[in-house]
Amino acid sequence: MKPEDIYILAIESSCDDTSAAVLCNDKVLSNVVANQEIHAKYGGVVPELASRAHQQNIVPVVHQALDKANIDKKQLNAIAFTQGPGLMGSLLVGTSFAKGFAQGLQIPLLAVNHMQAHILAHFIGDDIQEKPAFPFLAMTISGGHTQIVQVDDYFDMTVIGETIDDAIGEAFDKSAKILGLPYPGGPLIDQKAALGNPKAFQFPKPKVNGLNFSFSGLKTAILYFVQKNTAKNPNFIVENINDICASIQYTIIGIVIDKLKLATKGTGINRIAIGGGVSANSGIRQALKDGEQKFGWKTYIPKLEYTTDNAAMIGIVGYLKYLEKDFSNEQTTANPRFKI
Ligand code: KG4
Ligand code: ZN
């Protein structure tokens, strides 16, 4: 007999994207993301504006997700939501909505760790994408996080390296800001890097022992580099933008690949799965593919829509928790510092 299909509504509101998804078992029926444009003019996410925008977006986004999935709310078996980590005000919107909706429908709640979700996004049922076998290394690289995690099972994860200051996405965005590029600058650096010489300029790599990362020194080095050169030539940035972007990106890729080499050597695990918005970076993707030839790695990159913040990844964790009957209740509160 075919086991009963499980329908889960998932809600993600940890930072600046309001997202809702509907899953049937491990398959995504809909995955709606409302990006918040409001932050661009401030050059970064403004927490208070983010929570206000979540409040405006959440009801229409959930409706849209249910409509697209062609599912009536009465068919839902459970509601999954991001408990943390993230911005308190933003998390509260999703958490409160999920609690109210679940209570109204008399169905269980599933509290999800956002960082686990970036990793378990690799298990979204998709006939095209290959799923990593356990154990594997997961590298989550985004505007808020930079982590390497050893994943021994779905819910058996150990953080083995993380940033001690800025996240990798911040390194991209802050460098872009110094160059006068709009927020978020990561994708722009990527585009311009493709047209430039990655060895035109040299930036120092941070000296951080072990598997931890540091990016704040790089940002400072780029600031001094730009100040020094524009003092000599006011058009320095405009004349060299592609080469500067290519050199910055080359430095960041070098930092990432060095750490992955260390991590694979130290753990003896050569399967690497990446996630988070920065995994869209074409240079990082290429360097990982090259690593398959050079270092014998097997790399896994999920579809772009599942790497940036999205509710489908919250839904897959919800589904895995549902199978384990790992439900939460109305007492569960948002946890901005929720660890893996
Ligand atoms: O995961 P994400 O959508 O949101 C969170 O930060 O949680 O990641 C956004 C980050 C931003 O820092 C953005 O600049 C960066 O991902 N990003 C990129 C690229 N696309 C997005 N960084 C470098 N190259 C890209 N192609
Ligand atoms: Zn994220």
Quickly describe the structure.
By secondary structure, the chain is of the alpha/beta class. Helices cover 42% and strands 19% of the residues. The protein contains nine helices and ten strands.
SSE order and pairing:
Layout: E1 7-12, E2 17-24, E3 27-35, H1 47-69, E4 78-84, H2 88-105, E5 109-113, H3 114-120, E6 136-141, E7 146-153, E8 156-162, H4 168-178, H5 186-193, H6 216-232, H7 236-267, E9 271-275, H8 282-295, E10 298-300, H9 311-323
Parallel strand pairs: 1-4, 4-5, 6-9, 9-10
Antiparallel strand pairs: 1-2, 2-3, 6-7, 7-8
Helix pairs in contact: 1-2, 3-9, 4-6, 4-7, 5-7, 7-8
Zinc ion binds at residues 114, 118, 142, 144, 276, 309.
Q: What descriptors fit this protein?
A:
340 residues, alpha/beta, five-stranded mixed β-sheet, binds 5'-O-[(R)-(carboxyoxy)(hydroxy)phosphoryl]adenosine, binds zinc ion
Task: Give a written overview of the molecule.
The chain is α/β, with parallel strands linked by helices. The chain contains 9 helices and 10 strands. It has helices at residues 47-69, 88-105, 114-120, 168-178, 186-193, 216-232, 236-267, 282-295, 311-323; strands at 7-12, 17-24, 27-35, 78-84, 109-113, 136-141, 146-153, 156-162, 271-275, 298-300. The strands form 2 sheets. Strands 3-2-1-4-5 form a 5-stranded mixed β-sheet, with helices on both faces. Helix 2 links the parallel strand 4 and strand 5. Helix 1 (47-69) runs parallel beside helix 2 and helix 5 crosses helix 7 (236-267). The protein is globular, with a radius of gyration of 21 Å. 5'-O-[(R)-(carboxyoxy)(hydroxy)phosphoryl]adenosine binds next to helix 4 and helix 5.
